[in-house]
Design brief:
With 204 residues, the chain is α+β, with helices and mostly antiparallel strands. The protein is built from eight helices and four strands.
Length: 204
């Protein structure tokens, strides 16, 4: 079996990739990289030229970008049951999280204001429209793509959970209820414990 390796930092989006790896239940190796020299080293740049984490390697295959990592692992390990049979909503919301949701949240955090007359130029239109769409999506069923938990819930759930914890998303009943349905998953607990142990080792 091809070896799985996670290149990460415990204070990064690598926590999403680790959650997904714990959900599939396959053994994997962790390589912790510090910000700065580690991520910009020639050896790591040969793997991920963007010089950021997370990256997952699966044998000779390299996967970057959290949404792609979640989708790839769901496909590569179908026995985990994280890719639903009906894939339209699955792909729709997985990439909504990677596109409009993340862009809108980051722009707001950076103080980027989109003039109303330019809203058509950005993928999320406005923060308010993105938020209304997100609330409707997480209210449509127990999980983002229907009745079963999927890789899309790992990605979207992480975005919502972090947003509520750090205030980048407003406290709304629909968002809180969605996160409450996910936050006690055993795989997430294992992932968080592993990353918190790494933070403790680093003195963070």
């Amino acid at each position: 079996m091809d070896k799985l390796t996670l290149y990460t930092n415990p204070q990064s989006r690598g926590r999403i990739a680790r959650w997904m790896l714990e959900e599939i239940g396959e053994p994997y190796e962790t390589v912790v990289l510090g910000y700065g020299a580690d991520m910009q080293s020639p050896g790591y740049l040969a793997i991920n030229p963007m010089g950021k984490v997370p990256t997952v390697t699966h044998g000779p295959r390299v996967i970057t970008e959290c949404a792609a990592i979640c989708a790839y692992l769901a496909d590569a390990f179908p026995e985990a049951g994280l890719r639903p049979r009906g894939t339209a909503a699955y792909y729709r919301w997985l990439f909504f999280g990677a596109g409009p949701l993340e862009a809108a949240v980051i722009d707001r955090a950076l103080g980027v204001e989109i003039p109303p007359e330019r809203a058509a130029m950005v993928g999320y239109g406005s923060f308010e429209r993105m938020l209304a769409t997100l609330e409707a999506a997480v209210s449509s069923g127990p999980f983002i793509a229907g009745d079963s938990f999927s890789a899309a819930d790992v990605y979207m759930g992480a975005q919502v959970g972090w947003g509520l914890a750090f205030g980048s998303l407003p406290e709304r009943p629909a968002l809180r209820a969605y996160w409450d349905r996910l936050k006690n998953r055993p795989a997430l607990a294992r992932a968080n414990a592993a990353d918190e142990a790494l933070r403790a080792e680093a003195g963070a």
